[in-house]
Backbone:
């Protein structure tokens, strides 16, 4: 039987991977989304009410369903990174990485010595203490570190950030990037367009995977991003997919009722 590629292997071979964000701390939500065919799912601990305990439950469901579980942590904090990795996350997405020092700090928190500086604990990831050696080998070769580029300072320091050893890729946060320029949400503004162009041009000179989070559940926008060369693509998030689907279907139903009565 052919063994499925890990997320790390897919990123290393520059394959297109599609994932999404989970902001609702319910295991059923995660289980439903794993059946959709995503390559990875990210538990969002930055912009949600998800607790560490809930995050571990979501990680368990995602991983046991054969999908790579990632966690977007609330801040670049080594203790929090260590705890979500101990809970079984395959990697982290780290917000507001604006300097090389920020990137090094994130890598050090994920990897054990001699690669990083992560402290050793025995939790779910280590087989509850029964599989530490196996996990030790895995984490330094297969764990994933994705940095978020979401501030103009990060764009200005991008060459150094992407040159950091063991950074696997980056993902653009378009809303915060535009906000850092004083024009939140104005994605067609020349300043935002120029910043995005600079990001892509600099990224092309490095071996890291370029990523982008398409917030609306819009297939055409995903296609545009992929055509621009992005390979680590976030497709919306659970709340928006649910909300937009409900709105669209109810609009269709009400339009059908209206058309029938008009006839």
Residues:
């Amino acid at each position: 039987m052919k063994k499925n590629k890990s997320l790390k292997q897919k990123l290393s071979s520059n394959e297109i991977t599609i994932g999404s964000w989970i902001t609702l701390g319910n295991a059923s939500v995660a289980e439903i989304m794993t059946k959709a065919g995503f390559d990875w799912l990210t538990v969002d601990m930055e912009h949600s009410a998800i607790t560490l305990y809930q995050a571990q439950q979501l990680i368990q469901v995602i991983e046991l369903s054969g999908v790579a579980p990632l966690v977007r942590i609330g801040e670049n904090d080594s203790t929090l990174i260590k705890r979500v990795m101990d809970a079984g996350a395959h990697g982290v997405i780290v917000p507001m990485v604006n300097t090389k020092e920020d990137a090094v700090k994130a890598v050090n928190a994920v990897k054990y010595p001699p690669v990083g500086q992560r402290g050793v604990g025995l939790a779910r990831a280590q087989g509850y203490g029964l599989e530490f050696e196996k996990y030790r080998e895995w984490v330094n070769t297969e764990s994933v570190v994705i940095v978020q580029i979401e501030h103009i300072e990060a764009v200005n320091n991008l060459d150094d950030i992407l040159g950091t050893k063991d950074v696997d890729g980056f993902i653009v946060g378009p809303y915060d990037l535009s906000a850092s320029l004083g024009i939140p949400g104005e994605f067609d503004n020349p300043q935002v367009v120029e910043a995005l162009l600079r990001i892509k041009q600099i990224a092309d000179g490095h071996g890291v995977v370029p990523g982008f989070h398409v917030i609306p559940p819009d297939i055409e926008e995903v296609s545009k991003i992929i055509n621009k060369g992005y390979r680590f693509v976030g497709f919306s998030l659970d709340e928006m997919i649910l909300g937009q689907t409900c709105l669209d279907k109810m609009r269709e139903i009400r339009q059908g009722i209206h058309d029938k009565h008009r006839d």
In short: Residues 7-262 form a domain with the TIM Barrel fold (CATH 3.20.20.60). The chain has twelve helices and eight strands. The first strand starts at residue 17 and ends at 22. The chain has one domain: 7-262.
